[in-house]
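During the reporting period the student researcher (J.K.) took over the structure-prediction task from the postdoctoral fellow and processed the backlog of single-chain submissions. One of the processed entries is reproduced below for the supervisory committee.
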Amino acid sequence: MAEAGARAYRALGRLQRLRSGFSQRSYQPAQLMSDKKYSVFISSTFEDLRPQREAVLKAILENGHFPLGMELWGAADEQQWQIIKRQIDVADYYVVIIAHRYGSQHKGTSWTEMEYNYAIEREVPVLGFILDEKVEWTPGFIDKEAAAKKLDAFKRKAKKKPVSFWKDTEDLRTKVVLALGKQIQSTPRIGWIRADQGVTSVTANELARLSEENAKLREENARLAADEHPNLAFELDSALVTARNYNENHWGATDWRLSSDMMLSVTLKKGVPVGFAPAKVSLTVHSEDDQSLSLQTVFSDSNGRTLKDISISGPMSFRVSGSGKAGSLSSSFLESKNIKLVFSFSPIGYTQQYSFAISLEEVRNQGRPQWKASTGGAIALEITDSKKGNHSTGV
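J.K. obtained the following structure tokens:
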């Protein structure tokens, strides 16, 4: 990541030097106004607003402009702050997206607010987009106490400039496009023009090369991010699957059902909260001969209270109970010596689906088929290929 940041820093320097040659005297505004493209810096907290940032970035690209932002740099530090300031220096417009997190801080001020302050200082036109307070939001992505007070103060500051209030990702995308279009009409900036309209072939080739380098750096950063996420470490406390015939007292009739009980502990590898919706979790049982059964799940805490939302901001434990009718399974399933319990989920804000598999061995309980995990401990989390239904690299 450090090497990628260094290469991007050098690339941005060359872009800025090229930019210095695009003065308003180098072309005729009336002729080139409709052909100009603009650079737009996108500022926000990151983990809680991944889908929203992606939607805004794509919208800016689709409208022919160039998005700038923290995707190239990762976590901010003093060296990367210098890079970010240079990005804002070459930006034509600045967009800030605010939800319910103030973000990581440097000397008491969040990086997002530092970016905002610097854009104001550099007189870059600012457009603010604040999440509507009535919108439901993931609890783990809502600041409390001191951070919440700083966030409120930042929102009041942002409202001194033009702001819009958004309710969901599509609403935000639409409002950014509309507001940016109006800002371009009312406050046209230097922008960028085609290479054949005032730029030498040497400069055009350099711009094309830097654009390609920028794309490669984004891909590299995305790959590194995929290797690092999600930031969860699971441990198995216990797991049990039981088969029961609910018609065992009726001659010749069977109504086999499976129930599962799994106790998990989870903690964060990093300090960023992660959430997922139990309703979107998949729990399946697999036999040795490739038979499988999906189970309906219920999540509960250590006190037995049902959980409708999982928000992990620190070490915690929870129980996952599953049940399903086994009518589609053959008798060979019930005779399996070993089975697997596969748990799949998609963390809020992540594009990938993740899963882990627990191996269970046959035990006997009053003649009733039952399988139990022989050992607990750390669980290997894998990226699931949702199109093919299998697994890839563990994380």
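The committee noted the following: Residues 17-33, 386-395 have pLDDT under 50 and may be disordered.
J.K. will present the remaining backlog at the next meeting.
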